[in-house]
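A reminder before we start the practical. When you read a complex entry, don't treat the lines as separate problems. The point of joint prediction is that each chain is placed relative to the others, so the output describes one connected object in space. Small molecules and nucleic acid strands, if listed, are placed in the same frame. In the example below there are two entries. Take a minute to note the order of the lines before looking further.
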Amino acid sequence: MDEISTPGRVAEPGAGITLHELQLAARNHGLPLEAMRYDLTPPGLHYLLIHYDIPYLPADAWRLRVDGLVDRPLELDLAALRTMPTHTVRVTMECAGNGRARLEPRPVSQPWLVEAIGTAEWTGVPLRHVLAAAGVDASAVELVFTGADHGVERGVEQDYQRSLTVADASEPDVLLAYAMNGAPLTPQHGAPVRLVTPGWYGMAQVKWLVRIEAVATPFEGFQQATAYRFRQQPDEPGEPVTRMAPRALLVPPGFPDFMSRVRVVRPGPVPLEGRAWSGRSPVTAVEVSADGGGTWFPADLDPPNMHRWAWRRWRAAWTATPGTHVLTARALTADGEEQPTAQAWNRGGFANNAAQHVEVHCLT
Amino acid sequence: MDEISTPGRVAEPGAGITLHELQLAARNHGLPLEAMRYDLTPPGLHYLLIHYDIPYLPADAWRLRVDGLVDRPLELDLAALRTMPTHTVRVTMECAGNGRARLEPRPVSQPWLVEAIGTAEWTGVPLRHVLAAAGVDASAVELVFTGADHGVERGVEQDYQRSLTVADASEPDVLLAYAMNGAPLTPQHGAPVRLVTPGWYGMAQVKWLVRIEAVATPFEGFQQATAYRFRQQPDEPGEPVTRMAPRALLVPPGFPDFMSRVRVVRPGPVPLEGRAWSGRSPVTAVEVSADGGGTWFPADLDPPNMHRWAWRRWRAAWTATPGTHVLTARALTADGEEQPTAQAWNRGGFANNAAQHVEVHCLT
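Here is the predicted structure of the whole assembly.
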């Protein structure tokens, strides 16, 4: 297996994107940023990161096993799940690797720039109801979630698996979701049932969920203890990747050049808008710069609403003058966390929320 | 404009994928090949190539102008279009640039490997009914189709525009489509109305359609006369890119390594399957090779059906033995056209239907 499945690596400085990275970029996809105009991301535009293949899991054959340290092991089919109480949550979701391809040096994996995001309304059964039905034993410390997707990663053959502490899994907005924006899940978003953990990066939101096991010791599987850790050196244990760092993104104004994606505007007022979110403390302010971060001015942030886990829209006025400009925006949270303008590098390329740069060329 | 919008170019031999190509790959996306298992591509998995931005074109504000050399210029809204006769056609659609990133040297543009495909059922009004209502003058030779998408390409600011001859536009399956798989078009697929020209590469199927103009001379706009031509040298006029070349693709068997996408199988029988299509003469046979094209054996092609413009499924039996194998498949048509195993290079990177290679590692 070692000849086809190699250790993680970091690209040489200046090296172009490899065929392996391109293969991932051609399968997975980000949100075209102009689609941030929609509160809910239209079907098909939400970002997608699929580690292995989309498994074939027909709804009528699907079963969810709940076992391990529980009083009453369960095997639920979709009809049984649908008889339980339902809840709908609007969630902005982001890949933990968003921003990876902007890091220098570049960790070699799915090469996201800034577009690995999307917002959807997920409907399903709050996980705590299922846990209560099974009766999680007091000796359990974590729940391990297993997906039906199967592959190899850095030499390890595996089903995709992640864990949450019993406390995190019992949060009222954590769902076993069977609908997305009012429609049954599509195959690529985890049909028929996936885990949704609002505020967390995407790796925690296990798709094609087939098993939940209550365990007595922290889970040490590949996606928990090997991948998705913040590391400077390959051999250190690293801290786990968990909740989304604050981020603001601009809808690129004007119109693009096909190849460079540089934006073109005409002189005069150019309304700016975008979205901001955080999986930690809520975003309370957004600032914008039209000179690449030299000077900042405040944006108007839409008022807080009932959607705690969804992005908020912001707007700002800008007057374009002939020449080239670099627009950027940054989010600030209630806890005082400020989105950085410089990268915080790590070997996996996780949680790089360095502020976006949008190059704009204003015609004369 | 020239500083941000440069001429077409070809990458130096061995050069990695550039940031500009990656930006396109992160926005646009192909079909994950395992999704060829579905006759109709699930929502969100159909390939997408968007030259500029997805325009904002609400259905209630949309109008289609039909003018130029016509007896009765029309301005249709969606309600008016929906009162006309409807027709549904199942269409396999492919980007003209599919296969571009496998060419050596590599033309620099959207870097597709082999996945820029999808199959959908499009519903709308046959264009010939609209042309009859407008009364196309006998002096008209072509119809020019204008989309609402606007951008710059190689220094030329433009709305996206393509033409068809009056004869091609009058084919009974050419549609002004307002539904895809029974649902209204999504923004990224051309909402509210797009042109669908079965058998042609995607560039002809103008999205966000707002105008049809009948003209007396062949259209010489950018997307017709500059882009989408087969050229060996930048200054030659070149032949136009039109209908899809024959192609067969395999569903990669087994399971993948995350990073290399090399497939892993266990020894023994491994059923192979895939799809084949052509926009020219119909596919009549598919051949498969398990040794990279050294020897070929026939696949079982599903019988012809009513869907002339959609892919057909094929199946083949293969017994895996330990070691590395390269699987490939090729389509043959009623006209005797055989899908090549070597590339036919051109500067734009169009219509590269050289047979796919799937590397498979069989465990012991």
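Discuss with your neighbour: The helical segments of chain B are 19-27, 78-82, 127-134, 166-169, 222-226. What might explain this?
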